[in-house]
Amino acid sequence: MGNRAYNFNAGPAALPLEVLQKAQEELVEFQGIGMSIMEISHRSAEYEQVHNETQALLKEIFSIPEGYQVQFLQGGASTQFAMIPMNFLKAGKVGSYVLTGAWAEKAIQEAQLFGEVQLAASSKDQKFMKIPALSEIVIPENAAYLHLTSNETIEGAQFQSFPDTGSVPLIGDMSSDILSRPVDVSKFAMIYAGAQKNLGPSGVTVVILREDMLQDLPKNIPTMLRYEIHAKNNSLYNTPPVYSIYMVNLVLKWIKGQGGLAAVEKNNREKTGLIYSAIDQSGGFFRGPVDVGSRSMMNVTFRLADEELEKKFIKETAAQGFVGLKGHRSVGGLRASTYNAVPYEACKALADFMIDFQKRNG
Ligand SMILES: *Cc1c(COP(=O)(O)O)cnc(C)c1O
């Protein structure tokens, strides 16, 4: 596979080559049924096996305790921004949020359409370059839940540990770092993630929900936006995104084959370690704007002295087969997204390129 790019796209993002090859092998005829998985009923035994196996694999790999269920929804993580307050933000309660960057901000804006929002902590004054310390998080007494964004994909800042919220349900948007490391799922009442960064292709949103969250939910909201409906129907109330779920199934098997999340985390640390040390050892030629203690293991953001030099960097990397290194349009700079499926070799090649680029331009 000599001409696969060094893919650092932020999302949709790299998929494991083995997964793509397996999907290709099974594309026209899925496991001897004479059809593609895309061509059969979502109520068929063959599809249901994939659906249920995918839930079971996620529970196993992510060590999800008893009493949680896995839902496969549509509309992306962005629809969860609205579903969460619609379902859980009752009158007289407030939605409490940790404001850590662009994605947390979007979740907050959506919640404000439905009720009162209070910030439990914010790093806006630090331009989102530092995740608030857990001790800085103040949960209002009448909080319906506490929402946080475990990894801010655009700024490149990531929670390194999670708060204990007692009886207040903790909800985590893990769209860009789910399954990148082991997490104590029992701290959370709900975890959600659009699949297209670390789990598979776009089209499915994975929701992990503690069952007690399903009590006393409002019934006067659109059917498709009710967690209760998806719970009762095992995410088969209507046609689910069958192919995306099938791809998530393959990615989960790939993760299992890697040795699970401890092995995945070790690999991710080594991968980003290469890039962060190219930054740190550059004597200021490259600048990592994020506080060292909040650095993301999934999205490495960095800057050069000026935009001209950054443009040159992008141009030269593109010519050498690197893709997706331009920072998000809202923040500029450079960003390497090093999700699970990005190989060590790609990160090594980037770190080597950075060192060479400095030699030629420093
Ligand atoms: C990409 C991303 C989203 C948005 O996901 P969609 O599935 O496109 O709606 C939300 N939160 C985070 C942290 C993200 O990285």
Automatic annotation (TrEMBL):
It holds the Pfam family Aminotran_5. Keywords: Amino-acid biosynthesis, Aminotransferase, Cytoplasm, Pyridoxal phosphate, Serine biosynthesis, Transferase. L-glutamate binds at residue 43. Pathway: Amino-acid biosynthesis; L-serine biosynthesis; L-serine from 3-phospho-D-glycerate: step 2/3. Its cofactor is pyridoxal 5'-phosphate. Pyridoxal 5'-phosphate binds at residues 77-78, 103, 153, 173, 196, 238-239. Catalyzes the reversible conversion of 3-phosphohydroxypyruvate to phosphoserine and of 3-hydroxy-2-oxo-4-phosphonooxybutanoate to phosphohydroxythreonine. One of its GO terms (molecular function) is O-phospho-L-serine:2-oxoglutarate aminotransferase activity. The lineage of its organism: Bacteria, Bacillati, Bacillota, Bacilli, Bacillales. Belongs to the class-V pyridoxal-phosphate-dependent aminotransferase family. SerC subfamily. This is Phosphoserine aminotransferase. One of its GO terms (biological process) is L-serine biosynthetic process. It comes from Paenibacillus athensensis. Binds 1 pyridoxal phosphate per subunit. Homodimer.
